[in-house]
Amino acid sequence: MEKINVYDLRKVSRLSPVKCADFSEAAAVCLDYHRHPQKVLLTVEGDLSGQFQLAWETVTQQMKNSRKDMEYTVESGAYCIAMLVVEKLTGLSVEKQSQKRTGFDYWLGKEDGFGLQNKARLEVSGILEGSKAQINQRLREKMKQTEKSDNLNLPAYVVIVEFSRPLVKIKKR
User: Fold this and answer.
1) DSSP letter at 146?
2) Which of 5, 59, 83, 140 is most solvent-facing, going by the fewest CB within 10 Å?
3) Domains in the chain: how many in total?
4) Could you give the strand order of the β-sheet that contains 50-55, starting from the edge strand earlier in sequence?
5) Backbone phi, psi, residue 33, to 5°
């Protein structure tokens, strides 16, 4: 089974090392919140699927104290997991953050792409603990949200990360 370590984001993303470290730490805190063992099975379902052994480093009290805003922590942690899973399954890595009101969070691409060649959109949402119905509802909302940027004629990957299972649901449009 292929492994994903949340702290490997800096190796596959073109975001700054500090931003990657922030997202990675948030993911670790969310996983630790549910008392998952430090190597846990991550299931990916939807238009892309698979299973990975998800790992992270020990979460300290200082890390927990730094992340009391769980809404922000879940969002940041979901970015980490989504970016790592999408890179593993598609070979597309995060290039840059998108601007507000575009309908998606990040630009994806391959280093060999020019202009909009080999580019895609990434929209992510995190759920600390939710039912299948809540995950599916969030997926529908985020799919609708990406319509704002359909004029780009680029694929969009909508990724919902649920931390209690842990589960990633991906829809490509």
Assistant:
1) G
2) 140
3) 1
4) 3-5, 50-55, 39-46, 167-172, 156-162, 119-127, 106-109, 93-97
5) -55, -35
Our measurement of the distance from residue 11's CA atom to the centroid of its chain's CA atoms, rounded to an integer in Å, reads 15
Kindly state the tokens that stand for 50.
């698979």
Q: What residues of the chain score a pLDDT lower than 50?
A: none
Phi/psi for 4 (5° steps) reads -130, 125
Whether 76 contacts 63, CB under 8 Å: no
Cα distance between residue 77 and residue 18, in whole Å = 14
Q: What is the pLDDT of residue 164?
A: 98
Q: Show the domain range for 91.
A: 3-172
Backbone angles phi, psi at 85, to 5 degrees: -65, -45
* Calpha distance 137→28 (Å, rounded): 25
Which one-letter amino acid corresponds to residue 145? Q
pLDDT at 65: 98
Give me the phi and psi of 61, to 5 degrees please: -65, -35
83 near 91, Cβ under 8 Å?
A: no
Over residues 78-122, the pLDDT tens digits come to: 999 999 999 999 999 999 999 999 999 999 998 765 556 679 999
pLDDT score at 116:
60
